[in-house]
Amino acid sequence: SYDLTQPPSVSVSPGQTASITCSADQLENKYVSWYQQRTGQSPILVIYEDIIRPSGIPDRFSGSNSGETATLTITGTQPMDEAEYFCQVWKSNSVVFGGGTKLTVL
Amino acid sequence: EVQLVESGGGLVQSGQSLRLSCAASGFTFSSYAMSWVRQAPGKGLEWVSGISAAGDSVFDADSAKGRFTISRDNSLDTLYLQMNGLRVEDTAIYYCTKNIFSLPAGRGGVFDSWGQGTLVTVSS
């Protein structure tokens, strides 16, 4: 199986930059998507095809993918960004999600 | 505005069946692939199954193969998930999702809209 590895938790102060990583073998050869899930809510897509931000997603969210690591970066993090974030790829006729990273803004 | 409204969840015993439905609105349903993604209580996201816009291509997770069947009725703008032989480990919130393209695979394996989810609880 193909495993996407994310850190369980990341903490950031308001206004600072948060970086959430997603690692896997040859990840740069795949398109990575990122989803935000606030507590008690459904996930929403915040980045797809490594770097594309869907309409309505603030430009403080950005993505990158190089080597074996994709990164979701939140610049000028706001309290409302506190949530769990999941990376995701398509691999071998299947969707694979990372285990999720809980972002705490404090 | 895209709306996806799931229904059909509930409490069942191990081995029983359920059929989930997802009523879609706010977009041209027949132009987009659709998928089901589940989330066990306190756990991460797990993809279950995806179906092409025309309904002629289906992709299933290993956990769904042989037990779950995804289908759609483009005349009713509705997505379905027939779940047979349910197990305790199938207990989860099941989300209906809209894929970004007409195929749920490759670049299309991206979910740009999610429903509120329906809870399926399987007891032993």
How would you characterize the overall build of this protein?
The complex is a heterodimer of chains A (106) and B (124). Chain A has 106 residues and is mainly β. Chain A is 0% helix and 44% strand. Chain A has strands at 9-12, 18-23, 33-37, 44-47, 61-66, 69-74, 83-90, 95-97, 101-105. Chain A is globular. The N and C termini of chain A lie far apart (36 Å). In chain A, 39% of the residues are buried. Chain B is mainly β and 124 residues long. In chain B, 0% of the residues lie in helices and 51% in strands. Chain B is built from no helices and eleven strands. In chain B, strands 2, 4, 5, 6, 9, 10 and 11 form a seven-stranded mixed β-sheet that branches. A four-stranded antiparallel β-sheet of chain B has the order 1-3-8-7, with no helix packed on it. The radius of gyration of chain B is 13 Å and the shape is globular. At the A-B interface, strand 3, strand 7 and strand 8 of A face strand 5 and strand 10 of B.
Strand content of chain A: 35-45%
- Strand runs of chain A, count: 9
Q: Total helix count of chain A?
A: 0
**Whole-number mean pLDDT of chain A:** 97
**Shape verdict of chain B:** globular
Helix content of chain A: under 10%
End-to-end distance of chain A: 36 Å
Based on CA atoms alone, the radius of gyration of chain A comes out at 13 Å
Spans of chain A of at least 5 consecutive residues whose pLDDT stays below 50 are none
Order of helices and strands of chain B: EEEEEEEEEEE
Described by strand count, sense and barrel closure, the largest sheet of chain B is: 7 strands, mixed
- Please write the string of helix (H) and strand (E) elements of chain A: EEEEEEEEE
Using the alpha-carbon principal axes, give the shape of chain A: globular
Largest interface, and how many residues on either side? A-B, 23 and 25 residues
Strand count, sense and barrel status of the largest sheet of chain A are:
6 strands, mixed
Low-confidence stretches of chain B: none
User: Count of DSSP helices of chain B?
Assistant: 0
Distance between the termini of chain B: 40 Å
Mind telling me the C-alpha Rg of chain B?
A: 13 Å
- Oligomer type: heterodimer
Helix content of chain B: under 10%
